[in-house]
Specification:
The chain is mostly beta strands. 4% of the residues lie in helices and 49% in strands. The chain has 4 domains: 180 residues, Galactose-binding domain-like (Jelly Rolls); 281 residues, no CATH class; 147 residues, Sandwich (Jelly Rolls); 73 residues, Sandwich (Immunoglobulin-like), CATH 2.60.40.3080. The two termini are 61 Å apart.
């Protein structure tokens, strides 16, 4: 393995002598030599688009000194529409540069080299046409001989004018200089991350206790580059912002919005981290995608994918925190012990100012905390090294926080600076900037990263805002109502999940009697159709891809061996969203001949596990699942671990307010120790009948009460399970589902 080598050439002798820390130099005409890999650079289009194809420049790992090694090469220069770009840190000295490459015997290649200063990119330091006739062996050709007046990074741009197919590879670059200061490339091809931290007010603001935070961010059109992430509000253990993730399948930009929360622990370090230590999604919008993340801590991530924001236009973010107390049970000395737990529910919205108004992302649970907001941090980063030479910029303005006790807003106009990378060590990058914009009256901060430019830091404070109009005009009643709805939705979802869990049929003896395809060899011990009913969520069926790729639709016919009462289905998948089901139908039959369609969905939930509940019970022996489409972008591939069938009691609908019930009203039901506490949707004191049903429809409690708003009913004998509560009066009725653990 060849590491970055620095040699000392003595002009008085033709031999190479390796430099060391105790080397004594002889004479004044010493020449220092260094090498850098041709695999450690970037691919651009001829017109300057970043992250282009047409050349293989894979990057290098770093050695023990932190500098890139020389283990790889530039290869596969397949397109004249692609160019190579490199950045080398030169001393303030005369530097001669060379390139070592291998060209096919007799093959001709013509390059144009340009050397520029990233701080003045329109001023060319040197340009040269380089013609090479190949020998089939490594050749070392001179590139340039330049005098650099400032020690810094310089850009080397290499365009192949003709003969690109004659290039076998470019190995490395060599630099000779009389300066003992080494020429080197950057250790990392990605640019530094830049932070504005400890947002606060220079006014007389409280130190903590804020329940709302607000911020506006903007990525200009010039920085709308793949891999750009501008984070707006990093609050508590969460963060939210906007990303450019490339292009969607329909050709529109992937301008995504992200909101995440870290665990109170790490599933990377402890895969069995208990649920009460994990961040979780309480509820989210139907367009929001949720999943867990790892590697940089672990937690839960929510995404709004699509063309969700507009470059050059400020995006507004607002977040809310509210306290919650829950409980969880552990086994200690063989006994169940109940523990109280304090959490914070954090909700997030964004407004792209595109006419759609405030868009709800999600409400997530931060575990084991009672602290409301005190401040936040923001950052700008590039997470795509292939575009790591690009100069990115983002703007941040109108930071506000609302003091929970009094409801008044404070403008946060002062920040602290931090960043990654930086310093004076060889390989370090200092191409970052942060601070107030040039016109302080804009009350705007900026952050920038990349471009191999010089550091650009300004003031860390802007004038206090004279108006809070941006936050005073928000309809907080609507936002608060969505959080309350999220809490109610979670209760119903938990109840339904418990109902599904206790209502699944045992699939022993069931058979898959017909299927469209299966993968019998490419998935190891997995891939078979029978594995969707084997009761093991770790095994899976995969559509055939070895030899012949199976096309849509994929289908299965399952024989349950006898007629069963069916109320719903549960899908379990794996392999990531690129293997999930998107559009499907389910049919049932008594005789495997006459089929009844009971479900048709063109946009199934984009998640690993989802449940579907029938509107009414059906009785059948055979089930046919037809997968019409999937979410894969690389073919007609789908991966299904289990298809579970649940009994008919799941199909018993939970009654919701309707035209025959109380308009826009809902019953709230909570099990509090041994009491059933109800908050009624009815106005005024009246007689109310309360009924409690098991999920199979048996009425286990029926009582009449004179009540106005609240009822507390002793339920000491209630066993574990799911129940439906119904409250009825002469105004109508309302119902809710509860779980007894």
């Amino acid at each position: 393995m060849k590491s970055l080598v620095y040699t000392l050439l003595l002009a008085s002798t033709p031999s190479l002598v390796f430099a060391s820390s105790n080397q004594h130099l002889r004479g004044s005409d010493s020449v220092y030599t260094s090498e850098a890999s041709a695999a450690h650079g970037y691919v651009e289009s001829i017109d300057g688009a970043y992250g282009f194809n047409g050349i293989s420049i894979p990057g290098e790992n770093c050695d023990s000194t932190g500098l890139p090694m020389l283990t790889r090469k530039l290869t596969a220069w397949t397109s004249l529409q692609a160019r190579a770009a490199y950045y080398f840190h030169h001393p303030a000295a005369q530097v001669k540069s060379y390139m070592t490459l291998n060209v096919k015997t007799g093959g001709k290649v013509s390059f144009i080299l340009s050397i520029t200063d990233p701080d003045a990119p329109t001023d060319t330091i040197a340009t040269k046409v380089i013609d090479v006739i190949g020998t089939g062996k490594d050749q070392k050709v001179e590139l340039a001989d330049c005098s650099f007046t400032v020690a810094k990074y310089y850009r080397y741009q290499l365009v192949c004018v003709s003969g690109n197919n004659n290039i076998d590879y470019i190995d490395c670059f060599t630099f000779e200089s009389p300066s003992a200061e080494k020429t080197y490339p950057a250790s990392y091809l990605s640019s530094p991350s830049v932070h504005l931290g400890s947002w606060r007010s220079t006014g007389a603001a409280p130190a903590n206790g804020y329940d709302w935070c607000y911020q506006e961010i903007m990525i200009p059109k010039s920085s709308d580059i793949v891999g750009t992430y501008a984070m707006a509000l990093g609050v508590l253990s969460g963060y939210m912002g906007i990303q450019n993730n490339g292009v969607q399948a329909d050709g529109t930009p992937a301008h995504d919005v992200l909101f995440s929360m870290w665990d109170d622990g790490s599933t990377d370090e402890d895969p069995n981290l208990p649920e009460y230590m994990r961040a979780g999604v309480v509820d989210c919008d139907s367009l929001t995608i949720t999943n867990r993340f790892g590697n940089e801590g672990t937690g839960v991530q929510t995404y709004r994918r699509g063309d969700c924001w507009i470059p050059g236009r400020f995006v507004q973010f607002i977040t809310n925190a509210r306290r919650e107390q829950t409980s969880y049970t552990t086994i200690e000395n063989g006994k169940e012990v109940e523990h109280k737990q304090n959490n914070i529910l954090v909700s997030a919205w964004y407004n792209a100012q595109d006419g759609k108004g405030w868009q709800y992302m999600a409400t997530v649970r931060k575990r084991n905390s009672t602290d409301l907001f005190s401040s936040w941090y923001s950052f700008l980063e590039n997470y795509n090294w292939a575009t790591g030479e690009a100069s990115r910029k983002a703007y941040y303005r109108n930071g506000f926080a609302r003091y929970a006790k009094k409801g008044n807003w404070y403008n946060f106009n002062r920040v602290d600076f931090s960043h990654t990378d930086g310093g004076n060590a060889p390989g370090a990058r200092n191409d970052y900037g942060q601070g107030a914009t040039e016109n302080k009256d804009d009350r705007t901060f900026f952050m920038q990263t990349g471009g191999y430019t010089s550091t650009n830091c300004t003031d860390n404070e802007v004038p206090l805002a004279t108006s809070a109009e941006c936050v005073d005009t928000i309809n907080y009643d609507a936002l608060n109502a969505r959080v309350l709805q999220a809490i109610d939705n979670e209760k119903e979802r938990v109840a339904l999940a418990e109902l599904f869990k206790t209502s699944k049929y045992d699939k022993s003896g069931w058979k898959v009697i017909s299927f469209s395809s299966q993968e019998t060899s490419g998935e190891g011990s997995n891939g078979l159709a029978s594995q969707i009913i084997d009761g093991d969520a770790n095994t899976y069926w995969h559509s055939q891809w070895q030899g012949t790729q199976a096309k849509y639709p994929h289908y299965f016919v399952i024989d349950m061996q006898k007629i069963q009462s069916i109320g719903g289905f549960e899908f379990t998948m794996s392999g990531g969203a690129n293997r999930y089901i998107k559009a499907y139908d389910i049919y049932v039959s008594d005789d495997n001949t006459t089929w009844q369609k009971v479900i048709s969905d063109n946009d199934a939930p984009n998640q690993q596990t989802f449940q579907v509940r029938l509107d009414s019970v059906v009785n059948a022996r055979y089930i046919k699942l037809v997968i019409r489409d999937g979410r894969a972008t690389d073919g007609c591939f789908v991966r299904l671990n289990e298809l579970d069938v649940v009994s008919g009691n799941v199909a018993v609908p939970v009654q919701q307010p309707s035209a025959n019930n109380v308009a826009n009203a809902q019953l709230s039901a909570i099990l509090n120790n041994q009491n059933l506490d109800l908050i009624l949707p009815f106005e005024g004191e009246k007689q109310v009948s309360v009924r409690l049903y098991s999920t199979n429809g048996i009425c286990i409690f029926n009582g009449n009460f004179m009540a106005s708003k609240y009822i507390s009913i002793p339920m000491p004998q209630l066993v574990a399970g799911a129940y439906i509560v119904e409250a009825v009066c002469n105004e109508g009725s309302s119902s809710a589902m509860i779980i007894k653990k």
